[in-house]
Amino acid sequence: ANLSFIGRADISVTVVRETDRIVLNAADLTLRQVSLSGQSVPPRIVRDDRQETTAFVFPRRLAPGRYTLSI
Fold first, then answer.
1. How many CA atoms lie within 13 A of 59 on its CB side?
2. Cα–Cα distance measured from residue 15 to residue 23, given in angstroms and rounded to the nearest whole number
3. pLDDT one digit per residue (tens) for the chain, 71 residues
4. Which helix (H) or strand (E) is 36 found in, with range?
């Protein structure tokens, strides 16, 4: 059987050093809409099926601090 669900999650993220991406384990997940608090432009979503990860790549580097990633 092919089971699926639709949902939303808000994830607290702490960036400890400047970066342009956030990477999550995302095996078998389809992510349609992603946003990060304090960022007006949504990230580019880059899947790596071999590593079973998804990277959210932002147009500008993220400064260290606390953010909320909404998926």
1. 6
2. 12
3. 677 888 899 999 999 999 999 999 988 888 888 999 999 999 999 999 999 999 999 999 999 999 999 99
4. strand 35-36
